[in-house]
């Protein structure tokens, strides 16, 4: 079976894609949904002055607003109906996932299968509404206090503006949540991830255009731009290499007799990814560090002198900022890995179904072995995340790279691309197998 699958995978080409009608429909549906999302990022909220918002964002590009604006595909900078994007849903999903590790009730729901999963999804939606409403109200109050040299950001501040902002932003986030679920069900999968992917990728052309414009005017040398592009390609290759890396632990199942037949005896493997935590550690670390920087930026020149000192020490590229960033990435890498992978539970499941790791006794010894292997992998994964995320900070602060080449955004783009390609290949493989089954049935009827 493995050789047949490899042969079919080798035959994937545009011709196979053309014959897979169902896959074509899914791809077109996904593209249509993403176009709808991108159109929504240009529909402004009522009651704001776009020129003032643009001026404020030009002064805050290095802070938290710049990071979230990148994830939102520029929607936050334009203050549109999708300004909060899908990030409240991501936050709610992470909170629910963390709570399942500490709350026995949610942990029991997680083990109930499909019914429990639907219940957890419902809790996630309720929490998304609460988080979005709180963030939208905070954003409305923040907008009312924003001013630039042009004038105030809000044309007519007051209760009605706050109410309309909350309703607009909550509706926009819930629509994106629904759109992501539709892409997952009727498209090529990974709906939420593809929405974030589309938002990040949409900013790339303007960033590259501004870089080439600086090269044309002589602000940046041609050699520096070429070296930067080569470095980006090398970092992407490094990310792909590590993200595909995994430690395969051999698991053996003993033979057993069922009736008159002998079953079992096969050998399989338990794959452990090098980067089990994914992009969660950089997102958490960036949010924690950029939040005080963003608040300080709003009160620049208006608050006490110690605020300027804190801003200077925690600025991009400063030693303390880099040290805290690395420390937080390492901490969240170990913390989130411990949440998503439980060695004791995995060892108990292997023991329940008769599986064992050769040379390791089932039960507690297996759990200790898995924990030891996972710890070593997490050390490598945390170092990899730190390198990928620190490199852009050094480029921005030391070499004045004119766009936010963020490690977090790069990780998201590469991993979502890899997952999407895998989804397309799985659909093509299923189509190939369906064709083989139909041919076998026709030959059987003729025979």
Topology, pairings included?
Elements: H1 2-10, H2 14-19, H3 21-40, H4 50-58, H5 64-71, H6 87-100, H7 104-110, H8 114-145, H9 159-186, H10 191-217, H11 222-243, E1 246-252, E2 255-258, E3 261-264, E4 267-273, H12 280-298, H13 305-313, H14 319-340, H15 343-352, H16 364-399, H17 407-446
Antiparallel strand pairs: 1-4, 2-3
Helix pairs in contact: 3-9, 3-10, 6-8, 7-8, 8-9, 9-10, 10-17, 11-17, 12-14, 14-16, 15-16
List keywords for this structure.
447 residues, mainly alpha, Preprotein translocase SecY subunit, two-stranded antiparallel sheet, 17 helices, disordered N terminus
Question: What's this entry about, in short?
Answer:
The longest helix is centred in the last third of the chain and has 40 residues, at about 405-445.
Helix fraction?
Answer: over 70%
N- to C-terminal distance: 25 Å
Decide which structural class fits the backbone.
mainly alpha
Broad shape: globular
Query: SSE order in H/E notation?
Result: HHHHHHHHHHHEEEEHHHHHH
Q: Per CATH, which architecture of the largest domain?
A: Orthogonal Bundle
Query: Could you describe the largest sheet, including whether it forms a barrel?
Result: 2 strands, antiparallel
CATH fold description of the largest domain: Preprotein translocase SecY subunit
